[in-house]
Design a protein that fits this description.
The complex is a heterodimer of chains A (263) and B (273).
Chain A lengths: L12 E12 L2 E12 L3 E5 L6 H8 L5 E8 L11 E4 L13 H6 L13 H14 L15 H15 L3 E4 L8 H13 L6 E6 L5 H4 L2 E5 L3 E5 L1 H4 L2 H8 L3 H4 L4 H8 L1
Helix pairs in contact in A: 3-4, 4-5
Chain B lengths: L1 H5 L5 H26 L3 H20 L4 H22 L4 H22 L6 H6 L7 H30 L1 H7 L3 H18 L1 H23 L3 H25 L4 H26 L1
Helix pairs in contact in B: 2-7, 2-9, 2-10, 2-11, 3-4, 3-5, 3-9, 3-10, 4-5, 4-7, 4-9, 7-8, 7-9, 10-11, 10-12, 11-12
The chains are: A alpha/beta (263), B mainly alpha (273).
Amino acid sequence: MKSTDDRVFDNTAIIVSDGCCVQIGNTQALDDVTFSITKGKKVAVVGPNGGGKSTLFNALAGLAPVVNGSLKINGLDPQDAKGTISYVPQKDLINRNFPLSVKQVVEMGLITRNSLNLFARKQINLKIEEALENVGLSDKINENINNLSGGQFQRVLIARGLAQDADIILLDEAFSAVDVGAQEDIMSLISDINLDGKTILVATHDINNLEEKFDEVLCLNRHCCAYGDPSEVLTEDVIKEMYGSHYEMFKNHTSESHEKHND
Amino acid sequence: MIEIIIEPFKYEFMMRSLITATASGIMLSILGPFAINRNMGFMADAMAHATLPIIAVGVFLGFSISELGVPASILIAFFLGYIIKNSNVGEDTAIGIIFSSFFALGFILISILNVTINLEDLLFGQILAVSRFDVFIVTAMCITVVSLIIIFFKQLLFYSFDPIGAEVKGLNTNFLNYLFLVILSVAIVASLQTVGIILVLSMLLIPAAASKQITNTFVSSIYVSILFGVFSSVSGLFLSYFFNLPSGPTMSMVATFLFVVCFFVNQLKKTKI
């Protein structure tokens, strides 16, 4: 697996949300959300159930309309930025009845709107191999996806995004319905993966040790509670704002408690 | 032996039936693996039953079932697709409503318009009665269905496997959804004379289900499904000729026999492992 520790960020903002409001049915799922994500960052999106993590991803993917404010990807509206995003949806939204190989799933990242693939077969294979090498699954290229563990399957979907050359990869609830081992597997992949300038957003409930795995954290509870370096923004107040009465469960993960622990 | 095999084809109607059976076998079984993996059996059944009122009105106006094929397919596909997408009662319920109400409407129209239709032929197929024009239409539809599946195979597979991922990738998922519904509807309507409204489902689903028992990849399941579909249609036709059996039900039973064999082969494989 390729890894990178020497990432150089160009300071271009790839995602800019300015007072973004998204409505699902009659519910205001996101209200006045403002943040700006720089190109190449690994960002954790945390918050309670119903806090708007999936809604934000849907809005970024152009699946849910922004009703107020603005949300721009590379300066474009999400609808116009389709194709520059790879979306790994929640596990139960994918139809795993299909007995597909790892290679076929990764190749989906190279399928174009105009049906006939513009890449030559050799180039397609090369891209697939590169993407699988990057997620550490080169030896599984011909494996049936139904023989993979939950964590390996998530890796395949991330490889699809890498093959697509998407600017942004969205992992929605990557850790739901997978066991603890698989969670660790995906987390270590996110820590080590060479994103080659790509930006990755991961929706997660787990706020444990976020500073070790992510560059930034976006805290959502229908509005943006905080955004920035995980070691700085995950304060007691922010966690209280996100989880309310369930704060006690998370108080050991605040930046203050980490500092105390380190002392 | 060879003489026995070629004997039925001394008759022109048997040649016509053979071509129609093969075409139906190919187009239904190429779509079968998509249908079973997307759990679209009920939808396909509704499509077949929804043809009845269109056939009743069409025959009343002087058209044959073959002539009605393409417009009926498109009408049914778009109507079903629209209702499912826009109703808030759930997909199964929406399909159930269309399925039963259209079938009921069909019978009422046949009665009111006093249309001369042999209902048994319509429900269970009457392949021996196909005309040259029917053969031409069914063959043309088969070529169209196979060509569209080949051209859009990767897009349809992506959409079927991960519809949200496909939409975000920028594929026109609305187009792909209706394209598949139209293709499926065309194959079903074109096969009505071969196996009829009730049994068309068996030729769509059973070869694909049998194939899934013994194959490991989606592409190989399509090839084997086509093989089983054509074998069921053609051998069903032969058996119906030699044993004087109704052709549609015989084809359906051959497909079922193949499924049972494949099912036990699969169970045996699992036990050995």
